[in-house]
Amino acid sequence: MALPRDYAEQPCSLARTLEIVGERWTLLIVRDAFYGARSFGEFADHLKIPRAVLTDRLNALVGADVLQKVAHGRRFHYELTPKGISLWPTVHALIQWGDEHYAPRGPRRLFLHAADEQLVDTGGVCTGCGQAIAPTDIIIKPGPGAEPAHAADDSVTVALREPHRLLQPLR
Ligand SMILES: [Zn+2]
What we know:
By secondary structure, this protein is of the alpha+beta class. It is built from seven helices and five strands. It has a three-stranded antiparallel sheet with strand order 3-4-5, with no helix packed on it. The chain has a two-stranded antiparallel sheet with strand order 1-2. Strand 1 (about 65-70) and strand 2 form a beta hairpin. The radius of gyration is 17 Å and the shape is globular.
């Protein structure tokens, strides 16, 4: 018997949140959208999940108003909505928690304030200038824990070997 997707007996807002972002792959799709992935092919290429699962997760995120479908030529692109973009502090904090506990070689990616290239902390504050930094003003670049250049060759990984501004399309 499949587990239900909702936590009907749990009145807490965390349970409601997890119904949206707590499914396997969902937060990784959201992360990739922040990194600039937009097309089905980019998500599929980077995450290497079955296409049916990816379709299901993208539809659920569109249904929850986290992603929106935007016409792009004869296809669609998936872009974060304002509601989706407001997940950034959560996504960033979870990445940094993983860096702290599960990244012995150091962070795989660094999140820097675009204006002064200083690290942005988990509270979203630049460690250089002390300003609160919106995700659109953050540059991601490879950190000490980044994989060697030959480790993966999907379009997202390759594009992110260069510094890249969050939310800007990868190409
Ligand atoms: Zn700064």
